[in-house]
Amino acid sequence: MRSFASLAAISALASPAFAHTIFQELYVNGVDQGHLTGIRVPDYDGPIMDVTSNDIICNGGINPYHQPISQAVIPVPAGASVTAEWHHTLAGADPSDPADPVDPSHKGPVMAYLAKVNNATDLTVTGLKWFKIWEDGMDSNQVWGVDRMIANKGKVTFSIPQCIEAGQYLLRVEMIALHGASSYPGAQFYMECAQLQITGGGSTQPATVSFPGAYSGTDPGIKINIYQTLSSYTIPGPSVFSCDGSSAPAPSSSPSVPPAHSTTPVSTPSTPSTTPVSTPTNPPSGSVPHYGQCGGLTYTGPTACAAPYSCVVSNEYYSQCL
């Protein structure tokens, strides 16, 4: 039964302008493993914005995990195709929700990482070593990985490397929303971890990175003004691991969404406009919650932030309660 009253109450405060999202379902070779099965999901779908926080690893800190935390460990053959499914709330797909799986304003990349662990149900995640297995950034038509995820009804599909060692792993699937990223902190990070038992495989041990540590607030893919024509986009983090030794991004295998990636360094973004953000002459009543949008050239919602937050300008199109 998909009943999550506490999340529904929180989500009712949000508007589509700052809708959030949660990775909550995994498919292995097309087979659904079950809603919330084997995935550490938070009750609240808010972002992590501090790249130096331990919350950037698997979430679950300022956004506590939904209880009880699933103890399932999902069996996945090495080389298998896996699909991660995202939705706006833990209730799953909602065709009536314009922000499901996430509001279209939340443009940015989608990525997947693995970390080998002794026990996939152990909640201690600090000190783990991660390697990236897939990414989807921005293509030459300014279409983002998130755009493709939305077009595919919340699903992204990629492969588990055939050559890695068998054993238990955490799968970290992440989306970065860049609509407020022209200053730091501004980029919004959404991630959850799934518990896997990878079978078969080989003996390759990929090079790894640590979280926190893999990202910096000044990375060109994290501090960036997307309200301009970008010639390319640098996806944060390491290169995608490949069993053949190459570091080229792994292609997406989403059946209805064409893959597109770019790892060419992005040109230095132009300085964000300092023109004051316009607000409605008679702004609607009510207050905006933490991380909510409170201003922008095309914004028509409330402009007052709930205490103790203040409306902070990210760029002329987007201001946020921080």
Please estimate the helix content: under 10%
Structural class: mainly beta
The CATH architecture term of one domain is: Distorted Sandwich
Choose one word for the global shape: globular
- Element-level helix/strand string: HEEEHEEEEHEEEEEEEE
Descriptors:
322 residues; mainly beta; six-stranded mixed β-sheet; globular; disordered N terminus; AA9_LPMO; monooxygenase; metal-binding; monooxygenase activity; AA9 family lytic polysaccharide monooxygenase
Provide the fold topology.
Layout: H1 5-11, E1 22-28, E2 31-32, E3 39-40, H2 55-58, E4 74-77, E5 81-87, E6 110-117, E7 130-136, H3 145-151, E8 155-159, E9 167-177, E10 188-199, E11 287-288, E12 293-295, E13 304-305, E14 311-315, E15 318-321
Biased composition (Low complexity): 246-286
Protein name: AA9 family lytic polysaccharide monooxygenase
Region (Disordered): 244-286
Written account of the structure:
The chain is mostly beta strands. Among the domains are: 22-211, Coagulation Factor XIII, Chain A, domain 1 (Distorted Sandwich), CATH 2.70.50.70; 292-321, no CATH class. It contains three helices and 15 strands. Strands 3, 4, 6, 7, 9 and 10 form a six-stranded mixed β-sheet that branches. Strands 2-1-5-8 form a four-stranded antiparallel β-sheet. Strand 1 (22-28) and strand 2 form a beta hairpin. The longest helix is centred in the first third of the chain and has 7 residues, at 5-11. The two termini are 35 Å apart. Mean pLDDT is 83; it is low at 1-18 and 248-281. Residues 246-286 have a biased composition (Low complexity).
